[in-house]
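Q: Entry one of two.
A:
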Amino acid sequence: QVQLVESGGGLVQAGGSLRLSCVASGRTFSTYAMAWFRQAAGKEREFVAAISRSGASLNYADSVKGRFTISRDNAKNTVYLQMNSLKPDDTAVYYCAASRGGGNYSLPPVSQYEYWGQGTQVTVSS
């Protein structure tokens, strides 16, 4: 089992940037695909971005393509989400998630993320 702790959220003006981090416990971080999801108030949780075990495969929601970048450092047990050109619609609680599915070059289905962090709030003001 893996435990996930997110950080880096906060309040930013539209057009600004934030970088979220998620640190995982344990010594098997490289065996998990990692992803970011978000949930805005009154809405369902939605997929944002995913990265395969080795970092070779990436996937993004259409709403964040070209603005957000997911990356990972397996030596530091950490996954990042660099968010640029932020919009008020990006306001949400952002969650880090881990999956034992997929491989070095493939990603698991979005429904197969098993482990979740507690979330970090991102608020973008207009």
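Q: Entry two of two.
A:
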Amino acid sequence: QVQLVESGGGLVQAGGSLRLSCAASGRISSYYFMGWFRQAPGKEREFVAAIRWGGGSTSYKDSVKGRFTISRDNAKNTVYLQMNSLNPEDTAVYYCAASTKLRPNLSIMRSEYDYWGQGTQVTVSS
């Protein structure tokens, strides 16, 4: 069982930055991978970024590459999403997720993730 709590969302102007945090509790194995997803009003929840808990390999949605950085601090059991150069299209509720499945590659599929946080709102004004 893994519990996830996100924080760090808020209102920011276009071009600004935010850092989201996801504090994880419970038993976490090195092969788990952690993901960030987002859901804008009226749209499907979509993959943003993922990272292997033990190895640090990462994956990003194309539209956030070069602007967003996912990282983790194993000592703090926390995953971060640093978001720079934000634009209004980034406005959404951002969710942290954890996958306990043994997979050779990180997944962008929601169905691969077993645990989800409650979400944190990010609003980017133009």
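A: Comment on entry two: The chain has no helices and eleven strands. The mean pLDDT is 95.
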